[in-house]
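Hi, here's the filled form for the chain we discussed.

Project: internal
Contact: R.S.
Residues: 223
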Amino acid sequence: MRKLIMGIVDFRERMLPQYADRLRELALTQRPDALFITCSDSRVVPDLLVSTHPGDLFTLRNVGNLIPPATADGLSTGDFSEASAIEYSVLVLKVRNIVVCGHSECGAMKAVLTRNPKLKAPNLDKWLCNADAAAFRLKHAGALNLALKPHDQLSQLNVLIQLEHLMSYPIVREQVAAGVLHLSGWWFDIETGDMYAYEGESKLFEVIDRQEAERLVRRLDAS
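And the returned structure, exactly as it came back:
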């Protein structure tokens, strides 16, 4: 807690002068380009990883970067918090992109594979059911990258499953079909610091170096 408190002082004294004008501009409105869905893990810091500033990202974080699927009428089958963030970002903020970002060494993915009954965490156990489809796919269809550890294999497949869950929401499906919303699956390797993007053609997560970044941007521009 001491680190947090002194961090506030550091921001006020050292960083706030750099952001003061931007924060005044954002005081009454925001126009983020993307909804960024990622894990609550302390090692995953979205604004640091994608070099963004206040107002650039509408961020949704939870254990395992999970999105409970919707029913046919668009109601979430799980926690309404995630569904509300989707609706607000798409309908009110009119974001053009939604990114689901998983990561290596994810505790949630480890828990999905082990399901430790001694932990006595009924809420966590129920929440992780939203990753069961990813575990099923890993067991029956195999991993995208066999060189990864099992929980990292699951983490990558989980990103794809959560993208499918997103598409179960009518507002997302309609916006994607209209070409005004784009969904992306990313995966962050904590040890190397590399971010990867899922490529449908190769069916692999490809590292986002300059060449891959330019390819992704061209694809977005074309759509």
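Let me know if anything looks off before we file it.
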